[in-house]
Amino acid sequence: MTRFSCVLAVCFLLAACGGGEQEVGEFKNDWLGNEIKVEALKDPKVEGVTCHLSHFDRGFWDRVSKGNWFEDPSNASIACRQTGPLVIGDIDMGKHGERVFDQKASLIFKVISVRRIYDPVNDTLLYVAYSRKPVDGSAKMAISTVTMYGQDVQWLEGRPELAAAQ
């Protein structure tokens, strides 16, 4: 194997790596080796919430036949549920929320992200999965919610006032 091939292989492996996720399922969905992967994501600032993110992972033969070796599609789906007692840390209360997870979908620029937004009026956490690119971002997204209505929620920084959170 040439030195250039080794560098490309290492770059390809790094591009496929994600963050603090745990893969809980995968299956092939065609003869080209393409897979659907399902990962469990823990919100680092909200204990008791688990999101499951599914995304497409292109296989070797699909990459060979279509070129574009270093990019996966932007499609992703998300479902978030309460999986334990809710303990909320110092979360961003603004309308932009904050990113809680990033996974590379190309060698350099494309990323599948999950953003958490707090809806104070409905006492709900929203999780949005979307594709980020510096230029020409994708309109493909998915959303899931975790309601806190009627739940015994522990706020480590104190429960926000409705007027202050808007």
Automatic annotation (TrEMBL):
Superkingdom classification of source: Bacteria
Family matches, as Pfam families: CreA
One GO CC term, this protein: cytosol
Name of the featured protein: CREA protein
Organism: Aquisalinus luteolus
